[in-house]
UniProtKB/TrEMBL annotation:
PANTHER family: NODULATION PROTEIN J (PTHR43229). This is Transport permease protein. It comes from the Bacteria. GO terms for biological process: response to antibiotic. It is found in: Cell membrane; Membrane. One of its GO terms (molecular function) is ABC-type transporter activity. Keywords: Antibiotic resistance, Cell membrane, Membrane, Transmembrane, Transmembrane helix, Transport. The chain crosses the membrane at residues 42-63, 75-97, 131-149, 155-180, 192-213, 248-268.
Length: 276
């Protein structure tokens, strides 16, 4: 009786989950194949943060001071790791916006695939690319004199917080790519990436800013991740007098969870409303 009920009652929850994962992986593979077809774009995206490290570390680094002392390159690298996660938002918006404008997303919606496959596959591809970018930046940092001074577990936790930030920002990029059509979305995101990065502790300590500006920078979600990663890596420049600076590790978890909780439902709702 139970077997017959299972057979006639449609797919189980486990079946639906496996179906969604398989379809999501298909979309991820499609995006990976696009990297192979356009290697120049991929290489340029990977080398841009490396160029930023060299520029700030060597060109401007001699004029920078770290509050409390310490090497500026060790101060800089956690900020550059986080900035690389922010720069990925533009890539997400571009990919989603292009697929939507060319009707690819609508074709996916008309196919017998899990409704979540397109956004989940996009997220998986972007996270894979971000992991590769982060690994490249770690190697670059080691070559320019950066190192982590904590335990391997703390270093792994720092990498995890960086990827958690990127995971939350993926949903921001997917939503913007679905909601805003044309080049305007990409231009707007690229325009906001640098103010978001510079109005933080990524390149300079917030203690060196005017009091009101430092307070704004401290409450930038990016600043919490950067400060937490500096703390876990044992690099100089973490800590501060404000509550949020003293609880950077906690807020480096809270901020991405809040961002994801806001934008993931928006992505699902927007994806379902396409074509209506």
């Amino acid at each position: 009786m139970n077997d017959n009920t299972t057979r006639t009652g449609g797919p189980t929850v486990a079946d639906r989950l496996l179906w969604a994962l398989a379809d999501g992986w298909t979309i991820t593979r499609r995006d990976i194949f696009h990297w192979r077809r356009r290697p120049g774009q991929l290489v340029a995206g990977l080398l841009f943060p490396v160029a930023m490290v060299l520029m700030f570390g060597f060109l401007f680094g001699g004029a920078m001071t770290v509050p409390g002392g310490g090497d500026y390159r060790e101060f800089l690298m956690p900020g550059m790791f986080a900035m690389a996660m922010v720069f990925g938002v533009g890539e997400t918006v571009t990919a989603v916006s292009d697929d939507t404008a060319r009707g690819v997303t609508d074709r996916f919606r008309s196919m017998p695939m899990a409704p979540s496959a397109v956004v989940v596959g996009r997220c998986a591809a972007d996270m894979l690319r971000s992991a590769v970018t982060l690994a490249l930046l770690v190697v670059c940092g080691l070559l320019v004199g950066w190192q982590w001074n904590g335990t391997p577990g703390e270093a792994a936790a720092g990498i995890g917080l960086l990827l958690l930030l990127r995971f939350s920002l993926v949903w921001v990029g997917v939503y913007v790519g679905l909601a805003v059509r044309g080049e305007g979305a990409v231009t707007a995101v690229h325009t906001l990436e640098f103010p978001l990065g510079f109005l933080s502790n990524a390149f300079v300590a917030t203690a060196s800013m005017p009091l009101w500006l430092g307070a704004v920078a401290d409450w930038n979600p990016l600043s919490s991740t950067v400060a937490a990663v500096r703390e876990l890596f044992g690099n100089p420049g973490w800590g501060g007098e404000s509550w949020i600076a003293q609880n950077a590790v906690l807020m480096a978890v809270v901020w991405p969870l809040v961002i994801t909780a806001v934008f993931f439902p928006l992505c699902v709702r927007r994806f379902r409303s396409l074509g209506r």
